[in-house]
Amino acid sequence: MGEKRQGPGQGVTLKDVALRAGVSPITVSRALNRPEVVSPKLREKVEAAARDLKYVQNRMAGALASSGSPVIPVVVPSLSNAVFIEVIEGVQEIAQEAGFQLMFGNTDYDLDREYEWISMFLGWSPPGLILAGTRHLQRTRALLKHYGRPVVETMEYSSRPLDMNVGLSHVKAGAAMADHLIARGYRNICFAGCRLRADHRAKQRFDGFDKMLAQQGLARRPPLTREVPSSPEVGGEMLDHILREDPGVDAVFFANDDLAAGAILRAQREGIPIPDRIAVAGFNGLPIAALLTPSLTTIASPRREIGRFAARQLVQHISGQQCRTKRLDVSFDLIARDST
Amino acid sequence: MGEKRQGPGQGVTLKDVALRAGVSPITVSRALNRPEVVSPKLREKVEAAARDLKYVQNRMAGALASSGSPVIPVVVPSLSNAVFIEVIEGVQEIAQEAGFQLMFGNTDYDLDREYEWISMFLGWSPPGLILAGTRHLQRTRALLKHYGRPVVETMEYSSRPLDMNVGLSHVKAGAAMADHLIARGYRNICFAGCRLRADHRAKQRFDGFDKMLAQQGLARRPPLTREVPSSPEVGGEMLDHILREDPGVDAVFFANDDLAAGAILRAQREGIPIPDRIAVAGFNGLPIAALLTPSLTTIASPRREIGRFAARQLVQHISGQQCRTKRLDVSFDLIARDST
DNA sequence: CCAGAAAATGATATCGCAATCATATTTTAT
DNA sequence: ATAAAATATGATTGCGATATCATTTTCTGG
C-alpha cells in the first residue's frame, strides 16, 4: 500500500518483449493470447523474446483493458469443513481448465461477513460468483442484483434462487433420516448439531426431521446445540450429555458426520453399545463413516458434483451460451449402516 | 474472455461518484482511502454518494495505478489434506486483517504445476508469495529470483531457503518416531506412506526414520507405498498387506494420521489387537488421533502457527520492516499414546 | 488585518494491456 | 496481370484508479 512508485513498474512488460522481438506491442499481445492469428515467423520470435525475458502477463492491466477479469470468487462458510473443500475441488477442476482463477472468502457462517466479501470481490470485476447457501442479507441481494453478474448459489436447493442454483433439499434429507430411524423402530429420537442459528442447512435438516417426527406422532425434542464449530470431540461430548440428561433417547441424528463419528468413537471407548443402547446417524457421507465400528448410517451428497455443476453452469453462462437448466436439485443417498 | 466491450465498463466508477458528490474524482479516491485527509463535510458527501450508487472500488485499476496488488498467492500440494487447510487458515487470519487477499494454487504434488501457478501468479503483481515446501524446479527458482518478490517457504525447515522459511525438520521428526518405537521395544518396524516420490516431506520422514534404524542396527525395510492419495481406506489396506506379507513386523510408522487412523479402524473391525499384535504410529497430530481406540501415537506440528508466522513475516517484509529472523524452525511434539 | 504556513482540493499524467480502426502485405479469382 | 478479398501488422485510445505536482482555501500569529 505505502509502496513508492518505482518509475516504470518493476516487471517485464509487453513493450520490453516487443522491443526485443522487433515488433509492435500489440503483436506481442496477439502472439501470446491468440497465436493462430500471428504468422509463425513472428510468433516464434515473440515467444523466444518472452521466454528470454521471463515475461509474465500483467493480469490486472489485461483485465482492466478488456474490462473483465478471470477471477471467480467463491464464498463459503468454512474452509476447515471437508464438505466445502470438496465442492471447491469440483469448482476448481472445471474453472481451471476454462482459464479462470478462484478467490475464496470464508464467512464463518456470518452473513455480514458474506456481504463484505461479495462487496470486495465485485471490485475484481468477476465474470460471475459462486456462493454457498441461498440465505443472504437484503443488502447482499441488492448489491448482487445491482451488479448483475451471474451467480450460482450452491449446497442447498432453493425455490427462489437469485440466479442459478445447484444443491439438495436439506429439509427432505432431514425428513428422510427421521423416516429411516422410525422405520428401524426408534421412537425417542433427538437431533444434535452445532451453531444451528448460523448453520442454516443444518437447521433445515432439523426442520425436516422435526416435521417428520410430528407427522408420525412421535415425541419432539428441541435440538441439542453447542455454540462451537463441529468436531468429533464435541460429538462425543454431546452423546454423553444425552445419555446423562435424557436417558430415554434411543437414537441421535447428528447434524454431520464429524459429530457422529466422534459419538461413535466415544461410545466405543466407553463401551456403550451402538446401536443397542442408542443409535447414531450422521450427515455428509464422509469416507470415514464406512470405516467406523459400527459403521455409520449417514446421508451422502454429491459435493464434488455440486462444485462441478456450479462451475460448468457459470462458465457456460459467461461464454454466452444459454443453458437449459438454471436450477438443479441433486439427489442424496441415505446409506443405512450398522450404527442404526 | 470473448466478451464484447460495452462502451464504458459495466460498473459504477469513481467518476460517477465524483459527479454525484460534486467533487473531483481524486477527492473521492482520497475520501475513501484516506478519510483523514479530506474535510468532514466533503467526506460525508462522498460517502453518501458512494453508498447511494453502491460503488465498489475496481481493485485492478487501483493495483495498476499504484503498481502493487493486494493479492498474496498461496501454493500448496493439496487442498483435501487437512494439514494444508490449517496452514492456510493461519495465513488467512493474518493476511486478511492486513488487507491482503489470498489466491490458491493446488499443485497436486507436481513441481511442473507449481511452476505454472507461480508464473501465473506473478502476473498479479503480488507483494509476496507463500509456498509449501522447499523443493522446486530450477526454472521456478530462476523465475522467483528474477522477479525478486518476497517468498516464504513453509512446512519444512530448510538450510538453504529461497528467501524466508518456516517449518520443521521432517528428517528429525522421522528419527524421533523411530527412536520412540525402539524405546518401546519394537524391533521390526516398517514405514508406510503414499506417493513418496512426490511427497517429499513424507519421504524425509522416512529418511530420518530409516537412518535411525540403521544407527541402532535394526533391520531396515523399504517403505511400503501406494501411488494414490492418502486416505483411511488405504491405511487399512496397507496394514492388512503388512500383516499378510511381512508378519514379522511389530510396528508400523505411517506417513500421516489419515493412514494410521485407517489402520486402527481396520484393526478394530478385524479384531487385531493394537499394539500387542502390531503397533501403529502416525504423523500430524490430527484431533481424531486422540479419540481412536487405542488412541494414536503421533507427532503434532503447529500448522496454524506456521501459517500465521509465514503471513506475519511476509506482511512485515512488505511493509518494509526488517525482521530479525528470516527462518524459523518450529518444533514438533511426539505424543506417545496407546497405539504404541 | 495581512503575510506566510498549513490544509484541502484539483488537473494531469500514467500504470500495462487489449479493443478498435487503419494500413500494409499476401493470397485468390478472374 | 489485376482487382478484390483475406490476412497480418501497427497506431491510437481508453479501461479506472492513484501519484505527483499545482492550486486554492483556511488557519495562524504578530
TrEMBL record, chains A, B:
<keyword id="KW-0804">Transcription</keyword>
<dbReference type="InterPro" id="IPR028082">
    <property type="entry name" value="Peripla_BP_I"/>
</dbReference>
<dbReference type="GO" id="GO:0003700">
    <property type="term" value="F:DNA-binding transcription factor activity"/>
</dbReference>
<keyword id="KW-0805">Transcription regulation</keyword>
<dbReference type="InterPro" id="IPR000843">
    <property type="entry name" value="HTH_LacI"/>
</dbReference>
<dbReference type="InterPro" id="IPR046335">
    <property type="entry name" value="LacI/GalR-like_sensor"/>
</dbReference>
<dbReference type="InterPro" id="IPR010982">
    <property type="entry name" value="Lambda_DNA-bd_dom_sf"/>
</dbReference>
<keyword id="KW-0238">DNA-binding</keyword>
<dbReference type="GO" id="GO:0000976">
    <property type="term" value="F:transcription cis-regulatory region binding"/>
</dbReference>
<dbReference type="Pfam" id="PF13377">
    <property type="entry name" value="Peripla_BP_3"/>
</dbReference>
<feature type="domain" description="HTH lacI-type">
    <location>
        <begin position="12"/>
        <end position="66"/>
    </location>
</feature>
<dbReference type="Pfam" id="PF00356">
    <property type="entry name" value="LacI"/>
</dbReference>
<protein>
    <submittedName>
        <fullName>Transcriptional regulator</fullName>
    </submittedName>
</protein>
